[in-house]
Amino acid sequence: MPEEIENVLIIGTGCAGLTAAIYTARANLNPLVIEGSQPGGQLTTTSEVENFPGFSKGVDGYGLTDEMRKQAKRFGARFTQGFIKEADFSGHPRILKTEKETYRARAVIIATGASPRLLGLEAEKKLYGGGGVTTCATCDGAFYRDMDVAVVGGGDSACEEALFLTRFCSKVYLIHRRDELRASQIMQDRVLAEPKIEMVWNSLVDDILGADQGAVSGIRVFDRVKEEKREISVKGVFIAIGHIPNTKPFAEALPVDENGYLLPEGKSQIKTKLEGIYAAGDCVDHVYRQAITAAGMGCQAAIEAERWLAEKSF
Ligand code: NAP
């Protein structure tokens, strides 16, 4: 067990965690950043980020987070790989455990983000990854060149995935459970104007076909209005139905809402009910969930941690 007590332990390396790392490193706090299973966070699965201020021509998600990481390192942030499984916030220092390591820290910034929600179908489990079911068009889209695919969801992510896939695929079915998209107007307009995208409204994915063969061969959808099922032949299924916050290890020590999002204390966006413990980005924010707002929250959390540490004069 490392005997040293970290000033600040940052959990997560998405926009929130990396921004917190930049700020706490620049404040000479020598932060230790725990990098989980998806370094760079959700942005690394986005093709092009068009709305992060400062990039008039857009920027690719991986490149943006990689630059943030380098920026944090430049000021002395340290990174280590691990997955926090347990948090003991009952005393000081705070104790956090991965499978192999135990960390002790004065201040903690939780920036663990959120993971893709899945449909919960048996076939989805079997075909996830190599079998043709995925949650990342940027990562897997090119495998479906000249093929028909389906995207499930009606938000910005689903629209973005569908639009991205039109670069490779012959046809993209966008399966949405209602008759109106949730996505921002600009994304709706683009999707509805794209000839390669066919909307499948009011429909739920009832099953993914091909599990026995180990490769997607189609989907069966249930039209909730017509109350009928039909099969659509596709080779890939891209699930984009939102996310689940990665807060399980903290959910006993800190209050969470009914969907698992950490609950901020009072009017603050980033303070938790425990002093010196902050939450930033998609693990706490279910309203805005943007790269820029996550970065902003990471900045706020870092400044609060810095002030709190100075006040306590540890
Ligand atoms: P989201 O906005 O929560 O949308 C999830 C979509 O999936 C909704 O259309 C929802 O349907 C549908 N859905 C949820 N559970 C489902 C289920 N079990 N079966 C079928 N459909 C289901 O999630 P998101 O699209 O990932 O976006 C998350 C946040 O990131 C948003 O704030 C979004 O604006 C932001 N974002 C922005 C950009 C961009 O600006 N370029 C890109 C990606 C994401 P209902 O509509 O019926 O609820």
If you had to describe this structure to a student in words, what would you say it looks like?
It is a single chain. The protein has 314 residues and is an alpha/beta fold. It folds into two domains: 181 residues, FAD/NAD(P)-binding domain, CATH 3.50.50.60; 122 residues, FAD/NAD(P)-binding domain (3-Layer(bba) Sandwich). 25% of the residues lie in helices and 26% in strands. It contains seven helices and 19 strands. The strands form five sheets. Strands 1, 2, 5, 6, 7, 8 and 19 form a seven-stranded mixed beta sheet that branches. Helix 1 packs parallel to helix 7. The longest helix is centred in the last third of the chain and has 22 residues. The two termini are 21 Å apart. The mean pLDDT is 95. The site of NADP nicotinamide-adenine-dinucleotide phosphate has 18 residues, from helix 5.
In the CATH hierarchy, the architecture of the largest domain is 3-Layer(bba) Sandwich
Structural class: alpha/beta
| Average predicted confidence as pLDDT | 95
> In the CATH hierarchy, what is the class of the largest domain?
Alpha Beta
Q: Fraction of residues in helices? A: 10-25%
What series of H and E elements makes up the topology?
Answer: EHEEEHEEEEEHEHEHEHEEEEEEEH
The beta-strand count equals 19
Number of domains: 2
- The low-confidence runs, each spanning 5 or more residues with pLDDT under 50, are none
Head-to-tail CA distance between termini:
21 Å
Q: Biggest β-sheet, characterized?
A: 7 strands, mixed
CATH superfamily of the largest domain: FAD/NAD(P)-binding domain
CATH topology title of the largest domain: FAD/NAD(P)-binding domain
Treating each run of at least 4 consecutive H or I residues as one helix, how many helices?
A: 7
Strand content: 25-35%
Shape: elongated
Question: What small-molecule ligands were found?
Answer: NADP nicotinamide-adenine-dinucleotide phosphate
Q: Radius of gyration, Cα only, in angstroms?
A: 21 Å
